[in-house]
Amino acid sequence: MTFRVTDPTGLFDTDNATFTVTPVNDPPQITSTPITGATQGAPYTYIVTATDPDTLDELTFSLAVAPSFLSINPQSGVVSGIPAISDTGSHPISVTVQDLAGASDTQIYTLTVLFTNLPPVVSQIPDQSISEGDQFTTINLDNYVSDPESPDEDILWSFSGNNQLMVQINQDRIATVAVPDPDWFGSEVIIFTALDPGGLTDQDSVNFEVTPVNDPPVLQLAQIIINQAQQNIIDLKLYVTDIDDPVSTMNWQFGNFTHFQLTWQNQASQLLRIDKLDDTDIETGTFIVNDPGGLSDTAQVTIIYQGGATNTPPSLANLPDQFFLEEDMPFSMNLEPYIVDSTHQFHELTCEFYAGTNLQVHYNWVTSQMTLETYQDWFGLTDLHIVVTDPGGLSDEKWVSIHTRPRVDLQEITFQLPNQNTVEVNLLTDLPSEVDLSFWVNPSLKSTLKSGLFSTSHSFSLYNLLADTIYQYTLTLTDTSGFQKIYTDSSFQTRTTQQITENVSDIFAYPNPFRPGKGHSVIVFDNLPEEMTGILVYTPDGRVVYEQNIQGIPQRRLPWTVSNNNGEKLASGFYIYIVKGENGRKIMSGKLAVIR
C-alpha cells in the first residue's frame, strides 16, 4: 500500500508499506440434521454433511459414541446399519468431523429404534408315509416354527387341505393326523399355518401318504336254495366284497360236492351253474374265493334243492349300519347292490323308507337311487328305517344311523362406509371359524386379509380404497375341522369422493408411511394435475425403482402397488417421488417411507 502526503503548496512525498495476513486454521462445522428414528430390521441411513472455511482442507468423519450396529464411512460421512430386536430403544449418538489440522465439530443426538413385528417362519415339517392300517407320527409344531418376537406358546396354529384325513392340534401345539377309514390309502397335502400375535402368518405344506396293503376278500355265503331247475344260476359277485380289488377279478374254487355239479355258466361274469346229479337234495361243501394278490376267504356252503318254487325273503344284511352326511349336502347311493333276494329280481321288490327327525328321503324307482338330505342348517344324529318286501309278502328291515356333521355357514355380512376411502366389514358365522377376505378392482392386484382366530364374529377394516369404485370380493370360511366354504361373485362399492376445488394445488401421497402389516395395499397419489405425464420413484442415492408414463388421470388420482417395474415389492426404507409434466418438467417431488 502507498501512502502520500501533500503540503499547501502542492509538494508531496510518498512511502510504501506492506500488510501481511498469515493463515490460521478454521474448524469444520456439521450442517446436516440427524435422522433420529429407525425401525428394527430395516436399514438406517444418515448422511452427515459438513463445511470448512478452508476450502482445500480434507475432512474425516467418525463415530465417537454409537451402538454396535452402526458404522460410518470416514470419507463420505454416511452412517448406516440395521438394528436388531435387541437394539429396540434409545441410543446416544456422537458424530465428529475433523480437518487435517485437527480442528473438529461434534454433533450429538439420540436415535430411537422402534419395534416392528416380523412374521413367524415355518419350515421343514417332514412328510410322512405309512402303510395302510398304521398310524402317522404326531408332530410337535414348536420344533418347526421360529418367531423373533413371540414364544412358541403364543403362536396359534391352523390347518387346511385335508379331505379324507382327520387333523387335530391340541393346546400344547401337538398335531395328530389320523386315518378314519382303516382301509383307505392315498395321499393328501395338509397346510399348517402359524399365526403370531401381531397377525402375521407363515405356512408349510406337508404330504401324508398311506400306501396300500392288500386285504383279503370277504365271502358272505352260507346256503344256496335252488327252487327249480331254471333258477340254478348263481351270481357269485353278490356274495363277495374286497376293499382293494373289483369282485370281477376274483378266482373261485369249489370242493367236497359229490351230489351237485358246479360249472361256470359265464366265468367272466362269475355266474355259477349248479346241477343236481342224483336224488340227494342237500349237501354242504367248500367255497374258496381268491383275490389277485393271493389272499382268500373260505365258507362252508349248503346247497338245498327244493324242486318247487319256494319263496325266500329278501335281505338287507349287506346295507351299512350307518351313513355320514354333511350339513346341507345331499347323500345318494344305489340300493340294488345291497339288497339280496335269491327268488326275485330287484325290480320286483318294494322298498319303504321311514325317515327320522330332521331327515328327508327321496327314492327313484327307475335308477334305484336313494337320496338322503337333512333339514336346512341342521346337524346331529337321526335314523332311517328301511323295509324291503318281495311279491310273496316276505320282508326284511333295517335301522340305519344317520350322522350329519356340521359345516360353517355365513349368517350375516354388513358394509359400513365411514369415508370415501374406507370400508368396515362385519360378518357373523354359525360356527367358530377363520375368515379370509380377498378384494380387488383389478384381479392382478388382489389383497387378502385374514381373521387369524376361530370366532363367530369377524371385523375387517379396508383402508386406502378408491372412492366411488366397485370392488369384487371373495370370502373363505374355515371351521375348526378344516372344512372350507367359499363365497364368490360378490361386490361392494365405496363412497363418492367430494369434488376437489380449483384452489387446492398440493399433490399428496397416502398412506405415508406405507405399512402392509396394518392392511395397507396401495399408495395413492392424489390431487394430481391434469397436465402430468408420469411418476418417478427412486432411492436416496438416485437409483430409479419405478417409472410410469401416464396419459389422463381419472379423478386426478393414481393408485400404486408399491412394487418396482419388475413387479417386485419394494423393501423397507425411504424413497423420493417426482411428478413430471410436459417435456419431463418436474411439477412436484416428495418423500415416501415403506415399513414392512
Polypeptide structure, described:
By secondary structure, the chain is mostly beta strands. It folds into six domains: 29-114, Sandwich (Immunoglobulin-like), CATH 2.60.40; 121-211, Sandwich (Immunoglobulin-like), CATH 2.60.40; 218-305, Immunoglobulin-like; 322-405, Immunoglobulin-like (Sandwich); 410-493, Immunoglobulin-like (Sandwich), CATH 2.60.40.10; 508-594, Macroglobulin (MG2) domain (Immunoglobulin-like). It contains no helices and 49 strands. Strands 37, 38, 39, 40, 41 and 42 form a six-stranded antiparallel beta sheet that branches. The chain has a four-stranded mixed beta sheet with strand order 4-11-10-7, with no helix packed on it. The radius of gyration is 42 Å and the shape is elongated. The model is unreliable at 498-505 (pLDDT under 50).
